[in-house]
Amino acid sequence: MLERLNQAMEHIEGRLGPEQEIDVAELARIAVTSEYHFRRMFSALAGIPLSEYVRRRRLTLAGAEVLDDRRTLLEIAVRYGYGSGEAFARAFRAMHGVGPGEARRAGAVLRSQPRMSFRLVVEGNSSMEYRVVEKDAFRVIGKKARVPLVHEGVNPAIAEFIRSIGKDTVERIRQLSDQQPEGIVGVSDDLAGSRAEGTELDYYHAVVSAAAAVPDDLDALDVRAGTWAVFASSGAFPQALQFLWRDVFTEWFPSNPYRSRPGPEILRTQLNADASQAEAELWIPVERDR
């Protein structure tokens, strides 16, 4: 998998030049995976969305041309895909900290986005526990909120949302649980492909159920039958849970013949008395890699 990802990265480098487009579907074909999985894998491994990486690489090359002084700033803007000098100047300043005109006049120090390549670092002092489960279609039933994605620390929007749900409602939701993962779970759905910090997702405080009828005051998400990879973890809350998500995409997927498929991600968490430690089980929808 990593070799194929690096071939895709070489393809990106070959398409960064003037008036060239980068087709994500073609990158996915090179990596022998789906576009959906390629975007998620890249974001998890690189720490930034694919679109942001491409933007930074192009602005790195554009910065060198600005300092070179052979072309006008408008020519450079057009060469790197900007429809106007103003749009180019805004993007240039956002990355380099100065506008292109100022950089050319003053010979400013610019920032560079290095080329990325991926390698797998194997550490022998830890392992990931997982199992693969086939599940029939089911429903997620509970309360839903649209919240921003937070990569580190407690997500305040989710915490406030959970506090807003009455205890009686939580108990009614709990009683609808009739299959694994059992009990109240946190379900993330409709995430942006980039998984960038601050992008929004649907979060359910809910249960997994086969119930045919859904109470009028609750939200439901129908989930199709399929394969799930289930990971177990324990440690400090919430860091251990966030590290688990990271490790699934940066370590497990590159090492196993599976890829992610569209669907919700389900997290079952059990906290200790002071909520400082957690036992977790993370369900990720997967399919066999080609």
Describe the overall structure.
- The chain has 290 residues and is of the alpha+beta class.
- 38% of the residues lie in helices and 24% in strands.
- The chain has ten helices and nine strands.
- The protein has helices at 2-14, 24-30, 35-46, 50-68, 73-79, 85-96, 100-106, 156-164, 167-174, 239-255, and strands spanning 129-135, 138-148, 185-189, 200-209, 219-223, 226-236, 258-260, 265-271, 277-288.
- Strands 1, 2, 3, 4, 5, 6, 7, 8 and 9 form a nine-stranded antiparallel beta sheet that branches.
- The radius of gyration is 23 Å and the shape is elongated.
- The model is unreliable at 122-126 (pLDDT under 50).
Q: Sketch the major β-sheet.
A: 9 strands, antiparallel
The overall pLDDT, averaged over residues, is 85
Measured by DSSP, the beta-strand proportion falls in 15-25%
Uncertain segments are: 122-126
Shape: elongated
Q: How far apart, in Å, are the first and last alpha carbons? A: 11 Å
Structural class, by secondary structure, is alpha+beta
The number of helices is 10
Radius of gyration: 23 Å
Secondary-structure element order, as H and E? HHHHHHHEEHHEEEEHEEE
- Fraction of helical residues: 25-40%
Number of beta strands: 9
